[in-house]
Amino acid sequence: MDNIPNCPQCNSAYMYSDGNMIICPECGFEMKPGETGERVYKDANGNVLVDGDTVIIIQDLKVKGAASAIKKGTKVKGIKLVEPEDGVHDISCKIPGFGAMMLKTSVVKKG
């Protein structure tokens, strides 16, 4: 394969072909040839999430410095999907009673 693109996740020029996949050795991103590299965000049940969705938290979440945890069943409106800076938290939102926060897609379901 002659025209291997830069990694869409970390912009590395060292992408290489391995069978039917293109792999980035720097961040571990994998894609099939011809894919756009656009990230698809899915909730814990596999439903695709988009900006502005309303989600429901599926487990109690402890918050550092807060007196209480975010309770299971808390509804969060108007989420914003972001490229995770820490590699984990990919939802930016405001949670009632807690304020601005980053969440993982694995702890929410589409609501």
What does this structure look like?
The protein is mostly beta strands. The protein folds into two domains: 1-38, N-terminal domain of TfIIb (Single Sheet), CATH 2.20.25.10; 55-110, SH3 Domains (SH3 type barrels, Roll), CATH 2.30.30. 0% of the residues lie in helices and 25% in strands. It contains no helices and nine strands. The protein has strands at residues 16-18, 21-23, 30-31, 55-57, 75-76, 80-81, 91-95, 99-103, 108-110. The strands form three sheets. Strands 1-2-3 form a three-stranded antiparallel sheet, with no helix packed on it. Strands 5-4-9 form a three-stranded antiparallel sheet, with no helix packed on it. Strands 6-7-8 form a three-stranded antiparallel sheet, with no helix packed on it. A hairpin with a 2-residue loop joins strand 1 (16-18) and strand 2. The mean pLDDT is 87.
